[in-house]
Amino acid sequence: MDLNAYTQSLDDILSKNSVYDVPRFQREYSWEVEEIEELWTDMLGAIELDGDAYKCSEYFIGTLVLQGSADSSEMQIVDGQQRLMTISIFLSAIAQKFRALNEDGFFRSIYHNYIEGTDDRGKPFFKVNNDSHNPFFKKAILYKDHEKVDPKNKAERRLKKAYDTVYSKLGDELALSLGTRFQDHEHHVKALSAVKNQITKFLKVIYIIVKDEEEAYTIFETLNARGINLGSVDLIKNTVFRDMQKTHPVDHAKEVWSNISLKLDRSNTGTDLDEYVRHWWRSRHSYVSADNLYKEFKKAKKNSILTSETFLEDISFDVDDYLRIISPKSESFRQRLDREIFRSLIAFQVFNVTQHRSLILSLFYAARRKLITKKELAGVISFLENFNFKYVAICKKRSSGIESTYSSFARKVFLCKTKSEVRSEISDLKSQMRAKAPSQSEFEQSFSRLRYTKNYVKDKRLIQYIFNKMEWEENNGGELVPENLSLEHIMSQSGSKSSACGSIGNLLPLSEELNGRAGIKSFRDKLNVYKESRFWLVQRFCEQYSADVEWDEFEIGDRASDLANLAFEKYWVL
């Protein structure tokens, strides 16, 4: 492999009339504010105020690997695209700040030297080009007359945040960072010029050029082989795009990959492609950590278990099922059994667990193949809900300890060929989960510690889920609108100093209207309000307690134990 490496400044690179393209296999923009802040701080730390002048010092920012030739008008960025895009953001923000100060000469100098170039026909182009973020990066960040373009995904929101962060630092904060203050317009201009010079003249990179595309893919993989800069999914993407190089009439690999990423981003769950692929892999191939996923992918590819094409096809096919798991929408679950599945999927969100996803993804796949009925599917997902409620939500046990079990059964279900095989695997799964489940005494002790007050809301959503589930079961699956369920403190919070006030034993589900009417009334008067409620738990309470009861911490403790027993033996049965 023929490599040419030497040190260059950003001026040497960006002042050339060349396009630096971010290749299709590269990841999206990933720098967060912390990384922007770190580069900004390091950069300004290399600038010293010497009397009335600013003195800049060289600062090394890493390696820039390009594919092409030294005299080429277009180069592919193999490694260093995050830094080069960030530098372009810095320069664009500085140029716009000069423009805001009516320093059009400085603005034009930066813009035409480092941001925009022109080809032989006089047609303008941006020197750093990333089609994955087109048109946002070009129109909202680089273009001299910024246009209003809404970011369409998480990466573009990062781009916007990066630009806004840098631009906000170019006023009074810049003076503070440089250990001075702007006495007038000229002082501000001089400081901005120093920052521009530090970036263009004194930031240094190791500049490496490789000649062909195959070398570029190899260099990319080698530089990131240990996962120092990139994660496993980025390296898998590199391999997939290297194997699927056909880009005409459309770049199928890029189109499919981008569509998957966009769907996940639009789910607004915080789940990214890395997490999806990891859960998908565990449902099909092996239980693997994030760091080892790429190694397992290469091994599977080498052993002809999959190809880049089948991998991309499969994760594209399954992503809609995965979205139903992580972001269930009521309109997709209209029939009765579907509603049961929907409620269980919502429950996993309340429990804040993700480890079940690989197994449910595999169960959904079995349902598509008609190897499991809708009733059986709803039943096993409900079982997983009940287990996670007891094991994770109430007893606070680490769900990571059972993730390998989920993954193992997910793969077994995936490999099943008949309905009886699936039923057998589900039966074995339930047996293993029951063996891991907490005892009744452990559960009831933890359950009784649930509490909610205006100053302690950590358990509020879980308690609402508990009451909601009980009401739903007692209504034989009838819908109960969650917005109508508020938490009433039987012993009023106002004026009470009892620690038992927040206990689940002191709480009832009530509509907002009845809750407001109950207010801080006496126990006797509250009972009259409660009797108007249609909620089963409230009606049960009114049957259990008479107006002459002295409602105190002992009664609250007894009721908490009663609810815990009811939960364990009736509603969350394994």
How does the SSE layout of this entry go?
Blueprint (H helix, E strand, L loop, with lengths): L3 E6 H5 L4 E3 L11 H13 L1 E4 L2 E4 L2 E9 L6 E6 L1 H20 L3 H12 E3 L5 E3 L1 E2 L6 H7 L11 H15 L3 H6 L7 H18 E8 L2 H11 L8 H12 L8 H15 L6 H12 L8 H10 L5 H19 L9 H16 L5 H12 L5 H21 L5 H16 L3 H18 L3 H8 L12 H15 L11 E4 L17 E4 L1 H7 L4 H8 L5 H9 L8 H19 L3
Parallel strand pairs: 2-6, 2-9, 5-10
Antiparallel strand pairs: 1-10, 3-4, 5-6, 7-8, 11-12
Explain what this protein looks like in three dimensions.
By secondary structure, the chain is an alpha/beta fold. It contains 25 helices and twelve strands. Helix 10 runs parallel beside helix 13 (293-302) and helix 20 (440-447) crosses helix 25 (553-571). The mean pLDDT is 90.
- In total, the number of strands is 12
Helical proportion, percent range: 55-70%
Strand order of the largest sheet: 1-10-5-6-2-9
Q: What do the pLDDT scores average to?
A: 90
Biggest sheet layout = 6 strands, mixed
Q: Outline of this structure?
A:
The protein has 574 residues and is an alpha/beta fold. Helix content is 56%, strand content 10%.
Features of this protein?
10% strand, GmrSD_N, 574 residues, 25 helices, single chain, 3 domains, globular, 6-stranded mixed β-sheet, alpha/beta, two-stranded antiparallel sheet
